[in-house]
Every structure is written in C-alpha cells, then in structure tokens.
Specification:
Elements lengths: L1 H17 L2 E2 L5 H5 L6 H14 L16 H7 L3 E2 L1
Length: about 80
C-alpha cells in the first residue's frame, strides 16, 4: 500500500511539473489559464515580454505591473521560463 501511495505522489508531482506555463512563450490564452491571471494581466505579461525580452527567472514576472510578491507566490509552482 505504501508503494502505491508513493508512486501516486511521484506521478502527481511530475504531472504538476509538466503543466507549468512557460511565461516566455505562452499565449494570452495560456497565461489566462493560470490562477489569478485574467485578460488584463495576461496582456501585461505579453506586453512586458515584447518590450523587455524574455524573463530570465520566474521571479522576473514581478516586474510586470499588477503582479507583486503575493501573486508571484501563488503562481510560482505553475510557471516556468
């Protein structure tokens, strides 16, 4: 029983890693699939990316107007670069 439980935990963790949205390549629609990101913030992310280039780390998303530390902390496991 413990082995099955450990396998399920491992598979769930891997699925979460695969589901991360790449903030450097995601479309507005893909960005909107993230929690706390609506149309306005998704557009702000794309606009920032177009103006300043690629994000170097996920923390760089906090440079986008309207995305602060609290939002980043909620997103950090769902995004990648």
């Amino acid at each position: 029983m413990q082995k099955i439980f450990m396998i399920l935990i491992l598979l769930f963790g891997m699925a979460s890693a695969w589901a991360a949205v790449n903030i450097n390549t995601a479309s507005i629609q893909q960005l909107q699939s993230l929690p706390y990101i609506g149309a306005v913030k998704a557009q702000a992310i794309v606009d920032y990316r177009n103006t300043h280039g690629s994000f170097h780390s996920t923390k760089d998303i906090m440079r986008v107007k309207g995305i602060g530390k609290a939002t980043y902390e909620k997103l950090q496991n769902d995004i990648s670069v």
